């Protein structure tokens, strides 16, 4: 299959980032429509596939070229169905869900979430102590994993090579899009590994506390505006700087 030539790409979380304030979301896509280039859309979300599709319909969002769902454990290319299988194969190499479930069941303060995903185990944590307990037990038992704590209550346990950042990195390599002008946008802890990938990234103004603690970096823009308004603010900062300054 011939690879699509992409010059600009937005890889964004949905809830609390692209979605949250409808007027700002609409304004962002109007702004993109006025550019002289096309912006490729990749949605990178903690939601599962069906929930994401419902949100896209409810919020009247454009369909993305690629959907990365379930905190980076599922990947859907609407022009290349085989991409999903290739990503799934890489995740299977070190995924021990039975052992992880048994360990998590021994931890107080963790309540399983019902998530229709085969490469993700999710829990509600009563507090940070519950997260620290399962973290310690997984490490003591030598179980391969990636552990993510976000929004002060959500615990996701994934294969060690999963997560939003790993999935996005895999996608950019597979598509040959590494040299595109990429902006990554997020608002919570499960966005951390993609925000710190080394591409231009934005932490939106309404972000969760866990992202406020990120070290300062020239490629991480801390927006004042919330949600999609923060994405536009960062886009202008990284990719329209000369235009904005000349018009200012």
From TrEMBL:
Keywords from the UniProt entry: Hydrolase
Sucrose phosphatase-like domain ranges (all copies): 8-238
Superkingdom classification of source: Bacteria
One of the record's GO molecular function terms: phosphatase activity
Pfam family, one: S6PP
Protein name (Swiss-Prot/TrEMBL): Hydrolase
Annotated organism of origin: Fictibacillus enclensis
